[in-house]
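Working notes for the structural subgroup meeting. M.R. asked for a predicted model of this chain before we commit to crystallization trials. I am recording the input and output together here so anyone reviewing the notebook later can reproduce the run.

Input as submitted:
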Amino acid sequence: TGHTLLAQMTRFGPVVQIGTKEEVGEEGKPRFANLKPGQSIETIEFDEAMELFKLPITLGDYDGLEVIVNAGRFGPYVKHNEKFISLGRSADPMTVTMEQAIELIEAKKKEDAPIGTYKGHEITKGKGRFGPFLKWNELFINIPKRIDPETIKMEEAFELIEAKIEKEANRYIQQWTDEKIALENGRWGPFIRFKKKSFKLPKKDDGEKWTSEELKETPLEQVKKWLKDQGAKGIKK
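Returned structure, recorded in C-alpha cell form:
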C-alpha cells in the first residue's frame, strides 16, 4: 500500500498498524491487528505482521448466519449470531475449521440455555472476566466460590437473585434514566453517577457530608450543577 508498518503497544495491548494518520489523511483510518500469544512487538517479522491482517476470516454460514474468526483484545474468538466465543489465548485463529467453530457454537448455545425461571424471567448462566455469574431480568449476579456453577440448585439461584434485588433497591437514592444521572449509595457514602463515571458530592455549606435522606429531595438541576462544577461533559440542558 506504500504505507508505514508499525508495531507498538497501545492501551488495548500490542498491535501492528498499517498507515499513520498523516499517510491516510482525514478521510482514511490506519488499520490495526492484535498480536498473537507468543509474538512480541520487538521481534515480530514483516511477513508475520502482514499475516495478522488476514483476519477477520469468514468460514461460511451456519443456521443462516455468518461464522467469523477474528482476534481481539482478549484473544482469538468465533463470532456467530452476535455472540463472541473465545478460542483461548493460545489458539491460532488462522487454523480454525468450520467444524471446530460449529462445535463451539453449539457448546455456547447449551451453556447459554436458561436453567430456570424466576418471577416470569429466565435465569441463564455465564462466565465473565470476574468469574461465573447468573443473568436474570437484565441483572448480572456473581456466583460465589462456595457454590459450584455447574451444579447450582434453583433454591441457591433464587437466594442469589433475591439478595441482588435487595442490594439494587438500596443502591439508588434517585435516578433520572433519560439523563443517565443517578444519586447512588456507595461503599464510602453517596455519590453521583453520570453515564458510566462516578463523581463526588460536594460538602454542604456547614462542611458536613450529604446523607441519603437529604439527597432524596435534591432536584435534578442541582445535581447537574454539581456535575458541571466537576467538568462533566455531555449533560442535557
